[in-house]
């Protein structure tokens, strides 16, 4: 017990999620999801590929440990996703969420299954894109950002990892914006220690100035340049490096 009490929260979360993985099935009030494959993991949780039992439908489930801070962040994301779902997200290139539930103290967010991230696609083709490929990608993300602006939502973490190809075989270069874990309404926008990934971070955030949805357009501009050159526009190990670039 003494050793357990010294365990850090991320370690506890990892163990809890590992125990849950051993059960292989997640249950909501109306559905059961059989876990198949780990798609990714982070500090507060992981994303798992699942199949809805009784059907062949594949979904991606984001699983988060129900700690106080994580639960607050998850609830904010759920609120925004619920708002977006009411707007028919397919029409403005945003990932679709199906349901949210708590299972064995794990917060589960169920999403449509997409293909690969724009970052992984860049790696797969060896870096830079021709302009004919960049245009449709940027146009689709621009539509997503325009819709978010109309709803007063700032994504706050736009980067190649958070833009996903839907299905590059049947729908080449069709993309959707994902991961609203850092998203906030403009009225709630506050600078914090982590808003936007460093290489896509706008001057307002670096300098601690008031900000709005325009910070997402800055990120999109950085992504567009990266797609064309195959290199990060503003590389650096610190915000000082970003300003000096």
UniProtKB/TrEMBL annotation:
Swiss-Prot/TrEMBL keywords: ATP-binding, DNA-binding, Homeobox, Kinase, Nucleotide-binding, Serine/threonine-protein kinase, Transferase
Residue ranges annotated for the Protein kinase domain, each copy included: 33-245
Gene3D superfamilies in the record: Phosphorylase Kinase, domain 1 (3.30.200.20), Transferase(Phosphotransferase) domain 1 (1.10.510.10)
Chain sites annotated for binding ATP: 62
GO cellular component, one term: nucleus
Superkingdom of the source species: Eukaryota
One GO MF term attached to the UniProt entry: protein serine/threonine kinase activity
Regions that span the bilayer: none
InterPro entries, alphabetized: Kinase-like_dom_sf (IPR011009), Prot_kinase_dom (IPR000719), Protein_kinase_ATP_BS (IPR017441), Ser/Thr_kinase_AS (IPR008271), Ser_Thr_dual-spec_kinase (IPR050494)
PROSITE patterns: PROTEIN_KINASE_ATP, PROTEIN_KINASE_DOM, PROTEIN_KINASE_ST
Keyword Kinase among UniProt keywords: yes
Similarity comment: family membership: Belongs to the protein kinase superfamily.
Protein name per the record: Homeodomain-interacting kinase 2-like, partial
